[in-house]
Design a protein that fits this description.
It is built from ten helices and eleven strands. By secondary structure, the protein is of the alpha+beta class.
Length: 310
């Protein structure tokens, strides 16, 4: 068994419009890089090789907490030294915390002879996500582990996650440099939903799953609308409504807030359209004087993976 592994753990989209806390989609980039080394000294030690200044306290770091949850199941495993290089900016809304937590447990599993299933790894990584956002959700973790399109069907009484194929899609993501914490973005959500809106929403949920399974891009496009969560979050992201208008005019299939924001994503049929959509969305933030980053890439069919071992 190797003593050290290097893992790439990708950014992910969650919600995908109508599927709040349920749908997820893996990207190929950006990704976090986790180097994990076996150690005879029990416990977890963390070093950051990036400039984000995240905590190195394993009890407060999302990757540390996830690793400690896994280690609790393997009392004789010794300990780990972990180096984290974040390629995904924290707080961007593309699953930054989930990527680090997932990278850590995928690396540990490789060092421990792959004794845990992917479903179990989701459970460990979720412990980290609770630290990051204060809520228990797996919609970024599931695609980071399984790749492709995922449905978190249930967390209780047991994790039930569906890993489904995604048709070829190109994703454009624009990340306006606005600070928006997931915990704050969840505080604005309505505690109850009128039945009529719920009916429209679950009709879209069914349509989106069917669209993914049959590669029906038009069905995907007309099923993405979120009548419940996005309207509540709209005021938190200046430029969102206009970015959507321009993205659709540039040929996007559909999109919306990426996770809890502030990033905005659009799904597209081709790379060329995705590039044009990225430019169209970016123009809104340029006009508003808000700095932004743009990512364009294909959907990731694989989740976090070991890229080298020693
Ligand atoms: N589904 C979550 C939300 C994702 O929208 O709040 C945030 O990580």
């Amino acid at each position: 068994m190797p003593d050290s592994v290097l893992v790439h753990s990708p950014a992910t989209l969650s919600n995908l419009g109508c599927g709040f806390d349920v749908f997820g989609l893996a990207l190929t980039a950006p990704y976090d890089t986790i180097r994990l080394r076996r150690s005879s000294e029990p416990g977890v030690r963390i070093q950051h090789l990036d400039g984000y200044g995240l905590t190195t306290d394993p009890a407060r770091n999302v990757a540390g907490v996830a690793l400690l949850a896994l280690l609790a199941e393997v009392p004789d495993a010794g300990g780990f030294d972990m180096e984290i290089t974040k390629g995904i900016k924290p707080g961007s809304g593309v699953g930054s915390s989930a990527a680090s937590a997932v990278g850590a447990v995928v690396a540990a599993n490789a060092l421990l002879g792959n004794r845990f299933t992917k479903m179990q790894l989701v459970g460990f990584a979720m412990a980290g996500e609770v630290v990051a956002s204060g809520s228990r959700h797996a919609d970024n973790i599931a695609p980071a582990i399984f790749g492709g399109f995922t449905v978190v069907r249930a967390l209780e009484p047991a994790l039930d996650i569906l890993a489904l194929p995604a048709p070829p899609l190109w994703v454009a993501v624009v990340h306006p440099q606005i600070e928006l914490k997931t915990s704050d973005s969840r505080k604005v959500l309505p505690p109850a939903v009128p039945l009529g809106l719920a009916v429209r929403q679950w009709a879209n949920v069914a349509g989106l799953v069917a669209g993914f399974l049959t590669a029906d891009y038009d069905l995907i496009g007309r099923s993405m609308d979120d009548y419940i969560v996005e309207p509540a979050r709209l005021p938190l992201i200046p430029g969102l409504a206009e970015a959507r208008v321009r993205a659709l005019a540039a040929g996007a299939i559909g999109g919306g807030i990426s996770g809890s924001g502030p990033s905005i994503f659009m799904l597209n049929r081709t790379e060329a359209v995705a590039q044009a959509v990225g430019v169209a969305m970016g123009s809104v933030f340029a006009e508003l004087g808000i700095e932004f980053n743009t990512y364009v890439g294909p959907v990731g069919t694989a989740g976090a993976r070991v890229v080298s071992e020693v």
